[in-house]
Design a protein that fits this description.
- By secondary structure, the protein is an alpha+beta fold.
- It folds into 2 domains: 7-59, Thrombin, subunit H (Beta Barrel), CATH 2.40.10.170; 63-175, CarD-like, C-terminal domain (Methane Monooxygenase Hydroxylase, Chain G, domain 1).
- Helix content is 53%, strand content 19%.
- The protein contains 7 helices and 5 strands, in the order ββββαβαααααα.
- It has a 5-stranded antiparallel β-sheet with strand order 4-3-2-1-5.
- Strand 3 (29-38) and strand 4 form a beta hairpin.
- The radius of gyration is 19 Å and the shape is globular.
Length: 176
Amino acid sequence: MFSVGELVVYPAQGVGKVEAIEEQEIGGVKTQLYIVRILSNNVTLMVPIANAENVGLRPVYDKEEGEGILEFLKDRSDFTGYSGQNWNRRYREYSEKLKSKDLKDVAYVLKELYLISKDKELSFGERRLLEQAMGLISMELSYALGVTQSEAKRKVEELFVDIFEVKKEDEEANKE
């Protein structure tokens, strides 16, 4: 059970703060609810306490788990790329992973899209998914590692600096 003032993560929304625990009548049944304010956009969610685990509400990762996510992002051995898979199928798969309660699933999407971008220009939809994954990861890592969200984002981007350097070299070669 979470307490008022505690930071939590709601899948696909990100880090939020438990602002209150209330009892409300919904459909004639008294229900205890967490009132959670998502920090990135001030959206307020009402999450039934009895269903909190099922919807994926969980504590923010600690420092060790945050560092584990950075290590996971460094490891390229699980990269499947886009061979033989059309964009629609990948988009559905990535969208589902962004809704996961496991930050590793979100990190997987981020890593895949960064690595795909090494070989081809990302579509508008892919760029949106990449931005969403980066936002979710950098927000939670900022709390887990005790840094600002900008610093967390920079740490993640540094793991993919080789991709950006290759793209820069390619762009310069194309100009000549």
